């Protein structure tokens, strides 16, 4: 039987594990007992509002700060005693910008020089990295002579040039305009598929996290609120915090009327909605119902509206505001003293509504999510 080649066995693959990791700053828990395993080649986004601890986790992994407790492992080896320059990670942080006094070539050469790579090999590696980020021909320019997107590409080239198994990116696209961000997202994703590196990506932009990641880690005050595939986190958020942070959301508070084992009837606004939920509820329980704007159905008002209908329930409302989003219309509808947002994909045949129109809104029972409200 053929022997496994030792060089293959030892080749780093970029698996990461945070084990009981905490970091506190004068009593503020920036990371609070984080347990997280990231597989080799995964693209994982750390998503959360400002102060939720995203950067702290990345800085701990990069070795720029030390944990108060816990351990970090990469490819099964403890990392917390290894200095940052020995961690073999590609870093694209805003605070780790290109060196302004160095040309593109010198910037990309920097990590190779630091690792003592011979000049001839370095030249080849730089050429490969610049080709990967489509920046061949820019070698002699200085960062100030590049656009924001081009600088980002060079920062990426500098991060991948030494072939690290793990790439850390912190709010890397936040300085770019919307169109460029979208382009760079696609390029980073392409690069990820091409290189198969593990990428850990910090962002507060949920669209970015949902479009790019294999898994999203939603952080809340230094803790993990939910980990999952983007669709899972969007469609089945574990609580109202995650639901509100990942995607647009309408929340309607109500009181449970009855639970028949398959679905629950909830008194909300001026009507009753029916939701399919795996959890069981008791009559009188106060709950918060989530409905995504694209799951709100609008129809013109008809006499006898506001009653239950086959696919859920219909509530009476009045269109108060309309926004044209290009591919969809966004309606704000006043219903039972609350403003609900509806997003309707634009189509030539589709019905459109005007401000002041009386409408009926309804939801499919499967599209509603129900969360318990604390007493
Ligand atoms: N050097 C520090 N000294 C004191 N507190 C800090 C320090 N660095 C971070 N914190 C605190 O730790 C918490 C987490 O900060 P962190 O930068 O990780 O959050 P974040 O989610 O990355 O936020 P942002 O999106 O604003 O960068 C915050 O409450 C922050 O104020």
Number of helices, where a helix is a run of at least 4 consecutive DSSP H or I residues: 9
Shape by Cα distribution: elongated
CATH topology type of the largest domain: Rossmann fold
* Spatial arrangement of strands, main beta sheet: 6-7-8-3-9-10
The radius of gyration computed from the alpha-carbon positions, rounded to a whole number of angstroms, is 25 Å
Helical percent range? 10-25%
CATH structural architecture of the largest domain: 3-Layer(aba) Sandwich
Describe this structure in words.
- With 375 residues, this protein is an alpha+beta fold.
- It folds into 2 domains: 16-241, P-loop containing nucleotide triphosphate hydrolases (Rossmann fold, 3-Layer(aba) Sandwich), CATH 3.40.50; 249-372, Beta Barrel (OB fold (Dihydrolipoamide Acetyltransferase, E2P)), CATH 2.40.50.140.
- It contains 9 helices and 21 strands.
- The strands form 4 sheets. It has a 6-stranded mixed beta sheet with strand order 6-7-8-3-9-10, with helices on both faces.
- A hairpin with a 2-residue loop joins strand 1 and strand 2 (28-38).
- Helix 3 crosses helix 4 and helix 4 (119-132) crosses helix 5.
- The protein starts with 5 loop residues before the first helix and ends with a strand.
- Residues 1-8 and 305-311 have low confidence and may be disordered.
- Part of the ABC transporter complex PotABCD involved in spermidine/putrescine import. Responsible for energy coupling to the transport system.
- One of its GO terms (cellular component) is ATP-binding cassette (ABC) transporter complex.
- Keywords: ATP-binding, Cell membrane, Membrane, Nucleotide-binding, Translocase, Transport.
- Its EC number is 7.6.2.11.
- It is an enzyme of class 7 (translocase).
